[in-house]
From TrEMBL:
Superkingdom of the organism of origin: Bacteria
Transit peptide in keyword set: no
Higher taxonomy: Bacteria, Bacillati, Bacillota, Bacilli, Bacillales
Identification of the protein by name: ABC transporter permease subunit
Regions that span the bilayer: 17-37, 81-105, 117-137, 223-246, 271-292
Localisation per UniProt entry: Cell membrane
GO annotation, cellular component aspect: plasma membrane
Its membrane topology: Multi-pass membrane protein
Family: Belongs to the binding-protein-dependent transport system permease family.
Species this protein is from: Paenibacillus kyungheensis
């Protein structure tokens, strides 16, 4: 036992700087993710503020049944899935292609400029992005409607039409994330042995063949892992942006599980029901990640675990 303790302390001393860097992340997850876990009991109780999470009468699966039989159930599931899946469907390949293009650029000044411009949106506050979208799409003096009027088209009140919400949300998500997401792919491409490219040039392969038969297979593990991580959050649509952009007129295509939980829990003060909906969302996400991970492991022999 003493020898194991000594070995452990040696490892801690060796990796002390890495552990210091990891400490804030560890503390964050312990405080905000693990300590609140007993609160899921509220999903099975008739919770009343002031009585604590262990107070109140047990109601079993009453809140879950109420949600499943609700008229909003399928709408919420559809919207949550689509608003998470559409950015993944249309945007997952963009960082990969962008990373390939960046690596091929020889002009270092232009390369740094392009990377800086595409990374910046990731660091813009969601509140600012939502404000920009609302201003740009304003039917009164927004730049988009101004251009439409210039070319003889009728102005469109984008933010009040449910049919436009998914397009606006998806395009803004891709714009915000593709540059920053490309960093990992750039690093993966840069780690490929240059001799493999030299051999390909000797064999007379084209740029497309080089991309398809050398670059993409070499970064395949990175692509698979990031895809699995993206699928893990497919039922966890960003609450902030949806809440800032949607309104009563766009509920049909914009209302998702997280915004519904907020309205029912915080605004409606129905804490037990809101907790049940949130727990239901977490269970669906877990099942989805577990299933996709198993399928990926069988098909590609790569997985998260």
């Amino acid at each position: 036992m003493g020898q194991k303790a000594i070995s452990f302390m040696k490892l801690v001393k060796r990796d002390k700087y890495l552990l210091i860097m990891f400490a804030p992340v560890f503390v964050y997850y312990v405080i905000f993710m693990y300590i609140p876990m007993p609160g899921v009991l509220i999903a099975f109780k008739n919770f009343t503020p002031g009585h604590g999470i262990f107070g109140g009468d047990w109601v079993g699966l009453q809140w879950f049944a109420q949600f499943v039989h609700s008229i909003y159930f399928w709408r919420l599931l559809r919207n949550t899935f689509l608003l998470a899946f559409l950015p993944l469907l249309f945007g997952f390949g963009i960082p990969i292609l962008f990373a390939v293009c960046i690596v091929e650029i020889k002009n270092q000044v232009f390369k740094r400029f392009a990377q800086t411009i595409t990374y910046l949106p990731h660091f813009i506050s969601t509140v600012v992005v939502a404000g920009m979208l609302i201003n740009f799409l304003s039917p009164a003096d927004g730049i988009v409607n101004t251009l439409l009027a210039r070319f003889g088209f009728e102005k469109v009140n984008f933010m009040m039409e449910a049919g436009w919400f998914r397009t606006i949300f998806t395009s803004s998500e891709i714009w915000q994330s593709f540059g920053f997401s490309s960093i990992i792919y750039i690093a993966a491409i840069m780690s490929i042995d240059p001799e493999m490219y030299d051999s390909g040039k000797i064999d007379g392969v084209s740029k497309f063949q080089e991309l398809w038969h050398l670059t993409l297979p070499s970064i395949k593990p990175t692509i698979v892992i990031l895809l699995l991580l993206s699928l893990g959050g497919i039922m966890s649509v960003g609450f902030e942006k949806v809440y800032l952009l949607y309104n009563g007129a766009t509920y049909e295509t914009a209302d998702v599980l997280s915004t519904y939980v907020y309205r029912m829990g915080i605004e409606g003060q129905n804490y037990g029901f809101a907790t049940a909906v949130g727990l239901f969302n977490s269970i669906i996400t877990f099942v989805l990640v577990f299933t996709v991970n198993r399928i990926t492991r069988r098909m590609t022999n790569m997985s998260l675990w």
